[in-house]
Amino acid sequence: MQDCWKIAGKNIEIAIGRTNGLPEAFFLKDKGLELFQGGLCNLFIEDRTAGKTYDALAEKAVVSKIRRAKNSLCLELGYDRAPFKVTVSYAIAGDALKWNAVLAGDGRDREIHVGFSFPWCRPEFQFFMPHDQAHFSFKEIAGRYYYNYYQKNEPEPVSSTELEIGTPSFTAYDGARDYGISVLAPFDAVIPRLTVDFEKQSGRITITNRHLRLGPDCGITGSVFIVPHEGDWRPALGWMLKKYPGYFEPVNKKVFDCEGSMLMGLFDSRESIRKRREKEGLAWTEVHHHFPRYGEYLPEKEEWINYGAVGDRGKPRKVSKGMIKDYLRMLKEEGVAGVMYFQIFDCDTELAEKEFPESIVKDYSGNPLSCWPLTCIMNPDPDLPWGKYLLSQIKKMIKTYPQAAGFFIDVYSHREFDFSRDDGVSMRMGKRCYMIRHAHKRIMKKISKIIHAAGKFMWVNGLGFIDAGRGVDGNMAEGGGLAWMSFLSSVRPQIYLGWISDPAPMEKVFQSCLKYGTLPPVSGEQVDVLYQRKKYSPPTGKMTLLFEKYLPLFERLKGKRWVLTAHALKLPAGLDGNIFKNGRGEYVVAIVSEGKSALSGETFAENVKVTARLPGKITGVKLISADYRGEMELDFEKKAGGYVELMVPKHRSASVIVMK
After folding, report:
1. Distance between CA atoms of 600 and 57, rounded to whole angstroms?
2. How far apart are CA 419 and CA 442, in angstroms?
3. Residues 6+ apart with CB under 8 A from 380
4. What is the dihedral of CA 61, 63, 65, 66, to 10 degrees?
5. What is the C-alpha to C-alpha distance for residues 45 and 397, in angstroms, rounded to an integer?
6. Which residue, of 240, 378, 487, 490, has the greatest Cβ tally within 10 A?
7. Phi and psi for 268 in degrees, rounded to 5?
8. Are 308 and 317 contacting, i.e. CB atoms less than 8 angstroms apart?
9. Three-state SS for 184?
10. Which CATH superfamily includes the segment(s) 253-497?
């Protein structure tokens, strides 16, 4: 480490090579550890236009124009005959290192990938990413994970199914030696698409920002934060929440007043709403299919036939503004929040072609994209006619339906390239294009501001990627992604929507919801009732009994915030769970045994040891179980380091421990 520059913070010191301008050592002062352990970092710049990759180690880039400060270093890397210049900078801020690579081109359009590589794909590490599995051993980790990917109707097909992650990051940690490292791209960075690659043979993990355009009118900035922490995954999420609170925190805290199970409905009877509220914990209703066609959410006329009749999906139903107002009023009288459906991407094809043809998203070959029958996908850029029309509609809906408690924005994870337009930063397969998530973020900044200024809250369906998290008050996981999305909604309400008509799958959903701090839907085939293909039927006796057993547990999750300190919860093998702080200020440990039922006569597990690490003082502990009625006071023992130990006398399917 003689031929290095060094920059240091309170607990970290970085050595940067004078010959290659790359990090060569990363010291944790409090642990006395050097994190690279002989491995090497690298910077990869792939020029897809020229078909050449510039490898900072292999190319032996020339280092020049060095500027130093106490906690930062800036320098230029020169590659032989490269058509761009690279400025690399390192800066320590608090407990993290930020590594930037800024590219300036030669005036020609180039498609560029920028990758940062680290020597941390090692067998001693466990790995974490916001994903449905989330936690991986070295043996389990796949070769590549995808952020912001979607390949519909594009050449170069990529299968990202079941490999998508919710934040542009990875975490590697060693529990035995109690240290970990997280690497993440800034949430507010320009990211058309991003991958995380795990190369077991070389021991390398590479995070790559892809499909960036380097041109006469735009440069490129690739960045990562490198964050050391304790040997656990929770501090990684905790650091992200602290660094980017606006992407996680709800704006309108009234959303917490309406936590509970939800219904997707329209013109349900007062009696059915009341029964669902009393028996199933119904708290809010997504008022759906109130519109005649997708894209037209507030017709000029007073009365119309709703979308449920389009394409023979259901029986024709007359709808009017007066009927919607009466329905919203009834919901409010029954203590249930009415939340109006809205969408920014899908539009009826006939409406789109007639009124907004310039906003239709086109694939690489110039064909319109569609993901729902009789509709096409639209580019919601607020400067385009479709975007302006959406903003006008949301303002008029607020005025027309003041009884609505909020709005439900459907389909929140579109991530296609629109090859008919140019966003100024994206390039795919040699073509300028528009990543429609960039338009999504622009228009939702305006829409959420309008909604919140009116005192309403905003639920969304499918917050699967954190870059769109700003302004979101609550998230729905529809049909899947419950675990993946829960990491992005660790401090805001999340609801699960599934079609549950039998006790066994219902209890499985309840247990998953408890584990991830998510509230459940009501029972039944809601879509069939909405389309009038079936009439509402109350849940069976067993399903009603499950609601009775589980609703007291969900009650303690309201207002939840995940506890994100290291080693916050330890449970015996065979049990799963999580730890939260609820809106009452109580710490809540949820314990579930997947495959076990509160309706069965199976034997109990006895004297289950639970260890929690809490920052606050604990004065009392009680147990609430789905397996037996009532609340039970529990003894507990305080240990050094903020740990609390206790025994659950009997547990079978699901339990909640409440610590005051």
Report:
1. 62
2. 18
3. 344, 345, 359, 386, 387, 390, 436, 439, 440, 443
4. 140
5. 48
6. 378
7. -65, 150
8. yes
9. strand
10. Glycosidases (3.20.20.80)
Query: Is residue 598 left, alpha or beta, with left meaning phi > 0 and alpha meaning psi from -120 to 50?
Result: alpha
Cβ–Cβ < 8 Å for 522, 599:
no
What are the φ and ψ backbone dihedral angles of 321, each rounded to 5 degrees? -60, -35
User: Which residues lie across from 44 on neighbouring strands?
Assistant: 55, 115
Kindly report the number of other CB atoms within 10 A of residue 549's CB atom.
21
CATH superfamily of 561-659: Golgi alpha-mannosidase II (2.60.40.1180)
| Structure tokens belonging to residue 308 | 């449920």
| Residue ranges matching CATH 2.70.98.10 in the chain | 4-243
Q: Is the overall model pTM greater than 0.90, yes or no? A: yes
The pLDDT of residue 533 is: 80
Cα–Cα distance measured from residue 13 to residue 31, given in angstroms and rounded to the nearest whole number: 12
Neighbour count for residue 30 (Cβ, 10 Å): 10
State the residue for tokens 């998510």.
518
Structure tokens at 416: 């296609």
Mean pLDDT by 10 residues, the chain (660 residues): 86 93 94 93 96 89 88 92 95 94 96 98 97 95 90 61 91 96 97 96 97 96 98 98 98 96 94 94 96 95 81 76 98 98 96 98 93 93 98 98 98 93 95 96 98 98 96 94 95 92 92 97 83 82 95 97 97 96 97 95 93 91 95 95 95 97
CB 631 within 8 A of CB 552: no
**Would strands 605-613 and 569-570 be described as parallel, antiparallel, or unpaired?**
antiparallel
Dump strand ranges (E) for 260-316: 261-265, 282-287, 303-305
**Three-class secondary structure of residue 466 per DSSP:** helix
Nearest in space to 342 (alpha carbons), one of 397, 402, 263: 397
| Amino acid letter, 115 | G
Beta strands in 384-428 (DSSP E): 406-409, 417-418, 426-428
Instruction: For 298-310, give the DSSP string.
Output: S-SSSEEE-GGGG
For the chain, the straight-line distance linking the first and the last C-alpha, in angstroms and rounded, comes to 51
Q: Which two tokens stand for residue 52?
A: 């050449």
CA distance 412 to 472: 10
71 in Cβ contact with 9 (< 8 Å):
yes
Backbone dihedral region for residue 455 (phi beyond 0: left; psi -120 to 50: alpha; all else: beta): left
d(CA 481, CA 495): 11
- Report the distance separating Cα 142 and Cα 511, nearest Å: 27
Other C-beta atoms closer than 10 Å to the C-beta of 483 total: 18
Paired residues of 545 in beta bridges: none
- Three-state secondary structure call for residue 258: helix
Backbone angles phi, psi at 238, to 5 degrees: -60, -40
Distance CA(635)–CA(623), nearest Å, equals: 10
**φ/ψ (deg, to 5) at 314:** -170, -170
The residues of the chain that CATH labels 3.20.20.80 are 253-497
Q: In which element (H, E) is residue 528 found?
A: helix 526-530
Phi, psi of 320 (to 5 degrees): -140, 160
